[in-house]
Amino acid sequence: MLDYLIDDPGLRERGPGEELAVAVARAAGGDAAVRLRAPLTTLFPLASTRPRPTVREQTKGGTVADRTLRYVREHRAGGGGGTRYAATPEAVFRPAVAKAELTEISVAVPVPADLCSDPALLARFVDHRVIVRLCTVENEVLLHGSDDGAIPGLLRLDGLRRLSAPRASAEAGAAMDALMNACAEVEEMGGSCDGLVMHPALYWRLVGGGALAALDAAGLRVTRTRMIERDRVLLGDFRAGITLLDGEESTLALRRPAGDGDAVITAAMRLGLAVHLPQHFVLLAL
Prior knowledge:
The chain has helices at 16-27, 113-116, 119-144, 172-186, 200-208, 212-217, 238-241, and strands at 2-5, 32-36, 60-63, 68-75, 94-101, 103-111, 161-164, 195-198, 221-224, 232-236, 242-255, 263-275, 281-285. It is α/β, with parallel strands linked by helices.
């Protein structure tokens, strides 16, 4: 296999799909792979012109060279609420040193042989169709966790608080009331509710009810993804509560079958999640 670090590490002249197409051409019918110094899920070309924040975009982040990172996690140890600091939950938070592990996420997409022989078409397919599939996998892993347990999943956090709407929320107005109550509940832990993750069905119901402008005015970033149930919303202090960790490299590879059949393009990258304040997240059932 031809495996090399791309000629343009900053991706100023060529995108990731073009880099793989160049490697495939150089391989002259063999397998090819390229390594990129950027998370592939940040390179989807339509993201800048068609904003649809992923779960990643709710968080702060960093790149780590090692596969393990030590960080501080604060556990809730009781506490109620009141107008004095001593009565607040965070007054009795207990800090502990925790470890975040990087794990690999990947997606494999079959492609016909005639696509492999057309560099321009291959590059466009990688940029527009392969990378977006990896974005979906990333959303799934960040919400539900990785198979190896390295990423716990935001919907399964130990310390995640759960709320149920007090009444049926079929109408956008009722759903909005429940969301605002949940936002306030996030802030009972001392943080600031800065993001929501919801299913597209709920998102468009809120759009139709005119509620999205109010969420935007409050500074709430909304992620819509099919990787969460239709009647669930994850709310939280994403910037303070978690840190998304990236490895130093991503890879794109094209492997051809021994006989006839489709080639396979694989996109992969390393990812981790440090959970500083799990109690700063609320899962709302509508």
